[in-house]
């Protein structure tokens, strides 16, 4: 099988093109460093079966950061038949050097100048023939996002692949010319083949920046937008969630309840009251999560993330981090795992480690489900959104506070230089793709550890004695008794212990196992929670869930990214300790104040 | 022409980058991101409270932390006020 590698600077549209070529759903976004690992997909191109490999962006072939090393290692260890080089057609004055470097390596290349739609709009004119003659490989303009020039580009790849021979790119460093020579060649080439307007005006972007990066209002506006986004999710999400809950309940009544007389009580209890109800409750949140990721896709593709980095860098510098670290916290609101991996763009190991320590405090979408459920169960409709928002504030406070305490041990002198891309709007397709991605992600989680967790909790709360489920006679109850000395002071009852223990695996299990344990769901579960917990206990419980280890995948990622068990253990301990202290402080203070 | 620091430029100033006073890897990194000797930079805005600079170099827009901009030597081409009189052929 033949192999084509997609290579280019960050944020040039490699993953967008990869998706168009292969029908895959790689994550894209208007932020340099979305892709940090390699991703491969196979398609038939002309007569051949071809493997396309999407790689992280590289600024040049000397790259030192973790994501750039992924590319170097890949190129040096895997034979590649064809390199598909992707440059941003509107930024050739900066990017042509990379093409020059590749022409020196002497491997088979096709150069695609992406974003031809923007180039046309800006009045950039490119003589592709001239470029092709000088670089000695085929060159074509394309728009990966809108599809202009795509058939020709695909044709070009097919043809080039046909007469390509695999080349081994070992010892890349030694084959490259001096940097200034490369820059010189690129500049001459640029002068001959590209006409750029003297001032490349991006009027819309500049106009928006004048407001969003305003010296006084920039930051308040940013937080206002965040608040509005969460309000929107809350308001639009609730009816959607009710709708799905209604559907799932309908299925239960029509298809599952008739089985009750047929099946043995234990089996029915486990399968319907345990697994089905548990998963259904978690699943009812899927629309909210999809909505959430639609919003994320919009924000990530807009280019606002880089602006957020600009606005917060001064603050983050005081915490020993930089603006990119703040963006990773924001990405963590979706899921902590990609955010942890996103820190690969940082070259300094200590900055990465510091950043990775605080990302788990980001209130991810799995925790959001738990909090949506609990806040609606225990607080009035007016108060619930405020309570939820306060949890987001706690999430930031925990992250910033931890960085402040630990920055002394993890110092770095990483320079902070970041590109601000123009504002862009994602296509409907891109947003849908992201939503679909999340559904698939959820289904994979649900079918593996969410089910397992819920089943285990059901067994633990029902054996050897289920009267009441999770009571002192059951295994879960015994666990609760045993943990009571630590859970009592933070107001968490013994029947919740098992929930927290399994919540360590994934936060969705918290919700699912509440259902499985009580055998109640929907309004009945809400009522149960309302009578078994007061708001102080509930908030203390939520604080604990927010701050202690997010999930097993996070721990695993932490370990694989840091390559250190000691660091991983520290991170878990730190989070657990902070969670307990925060809950303790809150619970005891509230009780002391008479609530 | 005398060189000054990139970080000392005011909004609207235009200057040519002369060099970066940093070790090789950092210089390399900054060059590959667009801060390369010979290029012309224009200051668009300066962040408040010691926040980063927002500059334009050719077709790209960069954010550079002030501490790092301290390491970049530039020579001034034009202040904001006399932008109109600058010969466009100066564009490097
Ligand atoms: N206008 C326009 N935008 C595009 C085009 N191709 C990609 N984009 C946008 O450019 C941004 C970056 O796209 P990605 O595909 O994530 O870029 P990448 O090269 O994979 O980036 P990294 O993985 O970070 O290296 C996204 O916002 C895309 O929607 C295009 O042809 N025209
Ligand atoms: Mg990508």
Number of strands of chain A: 9
Strand content of chain A: 5-15%
Order of helices and strands of chain B: EEHEEEHE
Total domains of chain B, how many? 1
Regions with little confidence, pLDDT below 50 for 5+ residues of chain A: none
- The CATH homologous superfamily of chain B corresponds to Ferrous iron transport protein A (FeoA)
Unique bound compounds: guanosine-5'-triphosphate, magnesium ion
The chain-level mean pLDDT of chain A equals 89
What tags apply to this protein structure?
heterodimer; A: 595 residues; alpha/beta; Rossmann fold; 6-stranded mixed beta sheet; two-stranded antiparallel ribbon; 26 helices; elongated; B: 92 residues; mainly beta; SH3 type barrels; 6-stranded antiparallel beta sheet; 14% helix; globular; disordered C terminus; binds guanosine-5'-triphosphate; binds magnesium ion
Summarize the structure.
The complex is a heterodimer of chains A (595) and B (92). Chain A is α/β, with parallel strands linked by helices and 595 residues long.
Question: Would you write up a description of this structure?
Answer:
The complex is a heterodimer of chains A (595) and B (92). Chain A is α/β, with parallel strands linked by helices and 595 residues long. Chain A has two domains: 2-195, Rossmann fold; 219-592, no CATH class. Chain A contains 26 helices and nine strands. In chain A, the strands form two sheets. In chain A, strands 2-3-1-4-5-7 form a six-stranded mixed β-sheet, sandwiched between helices. A two-stranded antiparallel ribbon of chain A has the order 6-8. In chain A, helix 3 packs across helix 8 (179-193), helix 10 packs antiparallel against helix 12 and helix 16 packs antiparallel against helix 18 (383-406). The relative contact order of chain A is 0.08. Chain B has 92 residues and is mainly β. Chain B has a single domain (4-91), classed as SH3 type barrels, CATH 2.30.30.90. Chain B is 14% helix and 36% strand. Chain B contains two helices and six strands. Chain B has a six-stranded antiparallel β-sheet with strand order 1-6-2-3-4-5. Mean pLDDT of chain B is 83; it is low at 83-92. Chain A binds chain B through residues 59-60, 62, 64, 90-94, 179, 183, 196, 198, 200, 213, 215-216, 306, 309-311, 313-314, 317, 322-323, 347, 415-421, and chain B through 22, 25-26, 28-36, 38, 45, 47-52, 54, 57-65, 67-68, 88, 91. Strand 9 of chain A pairs antiparallel with strand 5 (60-64) of chain B, so a sheet runs across the interface. Magnesium ion binds next to helix 1 of chain A. Residues 8, 10-16, 28-30, 32-35, 56-57, 114-115, 117-118, 143-146, 301, 424, 426 of chain A line the site of guanosine-5'-triphosphate (GTP).
């Amino acid at each position: 099988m033949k192999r084509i590698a997609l290579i280019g600077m960050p944020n040039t549209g490699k993953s967008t093109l990869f998706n168009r070529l292969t029908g895959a759903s790689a994550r894209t976004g208007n932020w340099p460093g979305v892709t940090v690992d390699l991703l491969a997909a196979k398609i038939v191109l002309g007569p051949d079966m071809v493997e396309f490999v999407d790689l992280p962006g590289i600024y040049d072939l000397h790259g030192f950061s973790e994501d750039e090393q992924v590319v170097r290692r890949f190129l040096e260890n895997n034979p590649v038949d064809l390199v598909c080089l992707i440059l941003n057609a509107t930024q050739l004055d900066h990017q042509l050097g990379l093409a020059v470097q590749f022409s020196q390596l002497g491997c088979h290349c096709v150069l695609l100048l992406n974003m031809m739609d923007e180039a046309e709009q800006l009045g950039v004119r490119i003589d592709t023939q001239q470029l092709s003659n000088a670089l000695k490989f085929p060159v074509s303009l394309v728009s990966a996002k809108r599809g202009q020039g795509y058939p020709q580009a695909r044709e070009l790849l097919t043809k080039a692949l046909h007469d390509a021979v695999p080349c081994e790119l070992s010892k890349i460093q030694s084959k490259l010319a001096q940097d200034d020579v490369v820059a010189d060649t690129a500049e001459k080439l640029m002068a001959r083949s590209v006409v750029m307007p003297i001032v490349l005006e991006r009027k819309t972007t500049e106009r928006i920046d004048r407001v969003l990066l305003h010296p006084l209002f920039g930051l308040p506006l940013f937080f206002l937008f965040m608040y509005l986004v969460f309000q929107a999710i809350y308001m639009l999400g609730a009816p959607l969630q009710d709708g799905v809950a209604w559907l799932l309940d309908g299925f239960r009544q029509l298809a599952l309840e008739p089985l009750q007389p047929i099946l043995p009580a234990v089996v029915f209890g486990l399968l319907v009251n345990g697994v089905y109800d548990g998963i259904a409750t978690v699943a009812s949140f899927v629309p909210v999560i999809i909505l959430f990721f639609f919003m994320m896709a919009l924000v990530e593709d807009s280019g606002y993330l880089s602006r957020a980095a600009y606005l917060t860098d001064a603050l983050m510098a005081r915490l020993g981090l930089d603006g990119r670290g703040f963006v990773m916290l924001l990405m963590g609101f979706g899921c902590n795992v990609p955010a942890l991996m996103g820190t690969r763009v940082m070259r300094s190991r200590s900055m990465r480690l510091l950043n990775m320590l605080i990302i788990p405090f980001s209130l991810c979408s799995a925790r959001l489900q738990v909090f949506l459920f609990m806040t609606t169960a225990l607080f009035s409709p007016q108060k619930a959104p405020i309570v939820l928002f306060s949890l987001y504030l706690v999430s930031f406070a925990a992250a910033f506070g931890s960085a402040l305490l630990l920055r002394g041990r993890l110092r770095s002198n990483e320079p902070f230089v970041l590109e601000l891309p123009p504002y862009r709007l994602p296509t409907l397709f891109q947003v849908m793709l992201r939503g679909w991605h999340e559904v698939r992600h959820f289904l994979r989680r649900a079918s593996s550890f969410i089910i397992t967790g819920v089943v285990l909790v059901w067994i633990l709360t029902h054996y050897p004695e289920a009267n009441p489920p999770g009571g002192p006679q059951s295994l879960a109850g015994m666990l609760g008794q045993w943990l009571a000395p630590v859970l009592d002071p933070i107001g968490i009852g013994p029947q919740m212990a098992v929930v927290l223990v399994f919540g360590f695996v994934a936060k969705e299990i918290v919700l699912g196992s509440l259902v499985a344990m009580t055998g109640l769901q929907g309004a009945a579960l809400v009522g149960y929670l309302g009578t078994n917990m007061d708001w102080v206990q509930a908030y203390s419980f939520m604080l604990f869930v927010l701050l202690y280890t997010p999930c097993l995948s996070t721990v695993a990622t932490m370990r694989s990214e840091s390559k250190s068990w000691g660091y991983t253990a520290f991170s878990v301990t730190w989070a657990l300790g902070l969670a307990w202290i925060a809950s303790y402080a809150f619970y005891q203070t509230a009780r002391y104040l008479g609530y | 022409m005398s060189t000054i620091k990139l970080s000392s430029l005011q909004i609207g100033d235009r200057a040519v980058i002369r060099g970066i006073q940093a070790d090789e890897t950092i210089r390399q990194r900054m060059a590959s991101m667009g801060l390369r000797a010979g290029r012309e930079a224009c200051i668009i805005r300066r962040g408040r409270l010691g926040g980063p600079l927002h500059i334009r170099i050719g077709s790209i827009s960069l954010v550079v932390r002030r501490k790092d901009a301290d390491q970049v030597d530039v020579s001034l081409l034009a202040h904001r006020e006399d932008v109109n009189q600058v010969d466009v052929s100066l564009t490097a």
